[in-house]
Amino acid sequence: MKTIIEPFRIKVVEPIQMTTPAQRELLLQQAGYNLFKIDSVNVLIDLLTDSGTGAMSSEQWAGIMRGDESYAGAPSFYRLYNRVKEMTGFSEILPTHQGRASERILFEVMAGPGMVVPNNNHFDTTRANVEHSGAKAIDLVIDEGHDPKVRHPFKGNMCLDRLERLFSEVGADRIPLVMLTITNNSGGGQPVSLDNIRDVRKICDHHGVPLFLDACRFAENAYLNKLRDPALANRTVAQIVRDTFDLADGATISAKKDGLVNIGGLLLFRDPELAQKARNLLILTEGFPTYGGLAGRDLEAMAQGFEEVVHEDYLQYRIRSVEYLGERLLAGGVQIVEPPGGHAVYIDAKAFCPHIPPERFPGQAVVCALYRHAGIRAVEIGSLMFGGDGHHPDMELVRLAVPRRVYTQSHIDYVVEAVLEVFAKRDKLKPFEIVEEPPQLRHFAARLRELDG
Ligand SMILES: Cc1ncc(COP(=O)(O)O)c(C=O)c1O
Predict the structure, then answer these.
(1) Ligand 1 mean position to 264 CA, how many Å?
(2) Smallest Cα–Cα separation from 217: which of 190, 247, 177, 248?
């Protein structure tokens, strides 16, 4: 059969509240044209993020009932521990409430003032936590990763020459760890090849520096490796996941992505001494090491989520639905970051609205138009998010992130239709200016005004 179906039946439904274009126009004005300020009940299709927005399975909900809420040594922790150990090979396993809690502890233990941490692309919370420790965060993704039009199977790869150069310029004693983000969220959800991870590992070994993974989307990364690297075509995703973790000395994981849960995270180490230092910090701010800031039921849901996420029928549906969205937009003339990423499609807003300069927020014009036209919530990743002080990022993007197991094919078809209808009237999209902004992370709270043209 050619048709790839959602590999699940739906047992519980959550009604979507319909709104009219006139209601949405008013809501947009009240929100200062900032979609973070719109309540989710007024959104028809919410593509703001794939993080913590997925649907759990009946087995995960059964786990929620099984959850043991003992403070110490609950069986729910051991179920999670055994599953994560089996999947990753790590035996030092710390639960945390989400990815950034793992990051804060990791960099407090390993980084600090004067240190430099390379990554393919730091995610914004990772960068913030590296910098919070006093260290400097450096991005070393390959050149292809900067150009939306270039088709490369592994645009999330790290540039090995630039990594070697960094080691010779800075010295290994100032690089406490090298990180790789799989898949590369800030760079378009693009995968990192197993070969690249192996090559980065060799460089790390040569300099005696550990390699850590920001492994939020480890299963999507493994599946994209299976699809795109002929040498891996006959390995199972579970084997590729294990191959990936075997190359690392540790990992941070936000389970809100490939843990298929709404809250939860992990911090993994091979070195028991480092793990002990991290556990001391974990107790200080997250909780006892067998619950790490989560309820026992959350640990159960995570254990089951890590089981389900490597099922290949799930991953086939997951990756294909994002790819389908991307392909339909490309076929309609909308430039996206090519090829489509694992968890999201990123529209090139510079190409969508060439008449709006970066300082007038072309991405936000597209985001507002999609909401006004069809009630779809996307997010600008461009000059509104990363600009300020006259600085503009390389790309002006609009991210359509697809929650896991939440929307069906007809929802995706609706999104395609909406984007193409907005695209047909793209010369009517208007520029924006900021009228109010906070000193940090302005995209969350800024208010904007639509200009006349
Ligand atoms: C690559 C990456 N790293 C880290 C994080 C942070 O995870 P959390 O939101 O659970 O703190 C995210 C979240 O989106 C992410 O995409």
Answers:
(1) 11
(2) 190
